[in-house]
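User: Is it possible to get a 3D structure for a protein together with its bound compound? The compound here is guanosine-5'-diphosphate. I've pasted both below.
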Amino acid sequence: MNTVLVGAQWGDEGKGKVIDFLTEEADVVVRFQGGSNAGHTVVVGDKKYVLHLVPSGVLHDGKHCVIGNGVVMDPFDLMKELEQVESWGFDLRGRFHISERAQMVMQWHRALDRAEEAARPAGRKIGTTGRGIGPAYAAKVGRCGMRVGDILKPNFLDLVRDCVEEANLKLRALGAQPIDPGEMAKLYAPMVPALMPYVTDTIQFLHQNLEAKKSILFEGAQATMLDIDFGTYPFVTSSNPTAGGACTGSGISPRAIDRVIGVLKLYTTRVGEGPFPTELTGPEGEVLRRRGGEFGATTGRPRRCGWFDAVIARYAQRVNGVDFWAMTKLDVLDEFPVVRICTGYRRADGFVYTTFPADLDALAACEPVYEDLPGWQCSTSSVTDYSELPENAKAYVNRILELIGGKLGVLSVGPARETTLRVGI
Ligand code: GDP
Ligand code: IMO
Ligand code: MG
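Assistant: Yes, that's possible. Here is the predicted structure of the complex:
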């Protein structure tokens, strides 16, 4: 059984937690896009683990973890994270693999990320994580990127110097400090022996696993509404976090995928700039932020919070072909007397969009249309079986499923591993 797991909203839906849960029955977990802009949290007992580049399956000894070709990987971030994972007591030997085709995020990509963001006029700022993601992907498609496999070449450090010279042209144009190519060559030289043991042909590795009928779990980072093609462009990340990205970012065929799981928070959050139709800027938003602990796992920024948006969830169901939903954070809604679901966006002339419009100016001129449901006003965090949930909570979940399509597979009622209810998968 090969499963692709994707975020269905603007990220931080609880993908890390669900991946950790599904890893029990997987042999290999693969990251296929994004980089250390991701922050995936797994809570086991009283320990909280946050992963950025290393697949969230790493917390299960013996499972293989792969950084696929679609990822942009900062070697310094990776080394720090690998050390951390080992300090937590997990043995990585022989089970962590990096694609030689993956792109590297270099120091100058981070400098460009900062400089480009600073140069963007008000209203065009993206609020990036500052991890160099956009410039690294721009270098990839501009065919001037550095691939992980380049570290194996004798002229690796010459390539570093050449790429710095090229980046300096842009940094100077942006009024930012240029970078010393010699310093960079010195900085990256120790990365060669550090990365070398992990670098491999992961396409070959994954296909061997497919042939041996092993189960592969593809861990999406970011989410559908942050997708470079399907998201709220330009307020998006620079990769394809949607299901198709699992193929292009790992080298497996769409035919090898057996099911797609979408992770859906039962309200909505967003970090960074960009449209958010159901955002609550007043006290209700504060309540969601406080109860949901909505602060970025990577940057610590407070997340913007709002009601559940069925328009984007249905869009995500279609774009990804979601078979099963993993719905998270039901417990955060426990105390609300009324829970709201957005079913459309109403324009001033009365027209209601029930599909997500590409034109963000048109969207900005709309008001969300809500359907109100009674809350359940009791705690769900110790529920261990779906049947024990309060009727109003079930009615909320069922109404959402009716509006968006797909089946319920997993329901999460708390941050810890044990608070995950298996429903239909
Ligand atoms: P990801 O980026 O999709 O992996 O999500 P993050 O880890 O950035 O954010 C999700 C946050 O919600 C983390 O702090 C999780 O520990 C927490 N979380 C996940 N599922 C639940 C849940 O069902 N209830 C509560 N209260 N917290 C949850
Ligand atoms: P996980 O995997 C939430 C957002 C940033 C910014 C935009 C572009 O934890 O769900 P980037 O640094 O990628 O160029 O920033 O995307 N963003 C995320 N928001 N969760 C994430 O990852 C995100 N990764 C990027 O806040 O708005
Ligand atoms: Mg996150």
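The two ends are 12 Å apart (CA to CA). The chain has two domains: 3-100+201-422, 103-197.
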